[in-house]
Amino acid sequence: MDIPTIDFPNSDKEFIDNPYPYMKELRETSPIHYDTFSGLNLITKFEDVKSVQTSKTFSSSDPEEIKASDEKVSQREEYQYFWRTEEFSLLNLEGQLHGDLRGLVAKAFSNRQVQELRPFMEKKSNELLSSVNPDRFDLLKDYAQPYSVSVIGALLGVPKEQYDNFLYWSNCIVKMYDLKISKEDADEAEQAAKDFYYYITGLIEEKSKNPQNDMISRLSVVTENNQKLTVDQIVCTVILLLNAGHEATVNTIGNSMVALNNNNINTKGLNKKFEIKDVIEELIRWDSPLQFFQRWVTEDTELAGFKLEKNSKVAILLGSANRDEDAFNQAESINFERSNYGHTSFGGGVHFCLGAHLARLELEVSFLNLFKHEIRLLEKPERTGAFGIRGFKEVIVSI
Ligand code: HEM
């Protein structure tokens, strides 16, 4: 049986506003669809997404023959700094190198070190919320972004004066991860990657001479079996942590508060009615801030009754998997008393989100503070237009 072919409406406004009815239709028609534009086989069902995440037949690294192809070589030349910052990104590695690097990074990013940040998070969250105009403010620009950037900045040990640059660099770079990108955005991402690369290299040099109690310093000295991270590995890791560390968290705060408003759920005192952890997990499931990740097929295989050829590519649709009725009862509804919160928003398998403990704590502190108020949407918020990283341009609210 052939995989049905579709033209995924990646940039269609109606789809971006609410992709879930279309993805439900996809799930009901076939577990896999082939998108002609991106050349990706889209995996729509929860169980299949889980299988891809945990199987060695699906890899996050480019196969050697693809790396050597003319198209990839010329892309690497044109966007050399972008690729340089990606070379040792955990997201793109597999096997021994991934395991070794992930082990070293995890050692410098323990749960204890994250929990120690709680008082800092509480202070920052209070400060920001008490300085907004309660009658009208942008939940993203005035609260979520400065909150999240200062947390990851403090953890890594990045000077405050650089936070605006980080926001800008990271916003530019993450556009490269969507299914379609314009030449203009790609050029801007390359320039941002270059500036980011040189800045971080300098910072690492400074910290290796004068180590502090922060993660960049720890990454410079951490060892396992006499192995240390190289400078390029640290640069890629720091950039990954900064990008991954705020985009998804900021969008989760925005998506969640909009979801509560649109579903007529009063935010005030919500934590007294339900466990805060359940509220967080359900909101991340319901509108996942990261909608898809790609994998290469490493050998001819079969998934959900379809044949997938070696060196073809799949995209696991996390947001679709999280709305799969076969995995979640009444998946379309928000329910803070589910028996199953095993969503895929933090991924699964060897690439499971390394910052999930930090994200969960940041969200807990934030939501506990936000739920002291009745947050009201003052305007219908507009989506950024991207599918992969799902968020809003602004979320104008009163509290
Ligand atoms: C709500 C917030 C977040 C969400 C939904 C999220 C989601 C994810 C997902 C789905 C993956 C797996 C990607 C794949 O399968 O290829 C991932 C990986 C990763 N995330 Fe997160 N993330 C969040 C916050 C964070 C934070 C705060 C950090 C760190 C500061 C972080 C660091 C990472 C890293 C380093 C990886 C790569 C792990 C690997 O490939 O071994 N994330 N994240």
Helix content: 40-55%
Assembly state: single chain
Number of helices: 18
N-to-C span: 54 Å
Low-confidence stretches: none
Strand element count: 13
Alpha-beta classification: alpha+beta
**Bound compounds, please?**
protoporphyrin IX containing FE
Please tell me the overall pLDDT: 94
Residues in β-strands, percent: 5-15%
User: What Rg is obtained from the alpha carbons, in whole angstroms?
Assistant: 21 Å
Main sheet: which strands, in order across? Answer: 1-2-3-11-8-4
General form: globular
CATH class division: Mainly Alpha
The CATH topology comes to Cytochrome p450
**Biggest beta sheet summary:** 6 strands, mixed
CATH architecture: Orthogonal Bundle
CATH superfamily: Cytochrome P450
Q: Domain count, please report it.
A: 1
Q: What would you note in describing this structure?
A:
- The protein has helices spanning 13-17, 20-29, 46-54, 64-67, 70-78, 80-86, 95-107, 111-115, 118-131, 139-156, 163-174, 183-209, 215-221, 231-262, 270-273, 276-286, 318-321, 356-370; strands at residues 5-6, 32-35, 40-43, 58-59, 137-138, 223-224, 227-228, 292-297, 301-303, 306-308, 313-317, 376-377, 396-398.
- With 399 residues, it is an alpha+beta fold.
- The protein has one domain (5-398): Cytochrome p450 (Orthogonal Bundle).
- It has a 6-stranded mixed sheet with strand order 1-2-3-11-8-4.
- Helix 12 (183-209) crosses helix 14 (231-262).
- The protein is globular, with a radius of gyration of 21 Å.
- The relative contact order is 0.18.
- The model has no long low-confidence stretch (mean pLDDT 94).
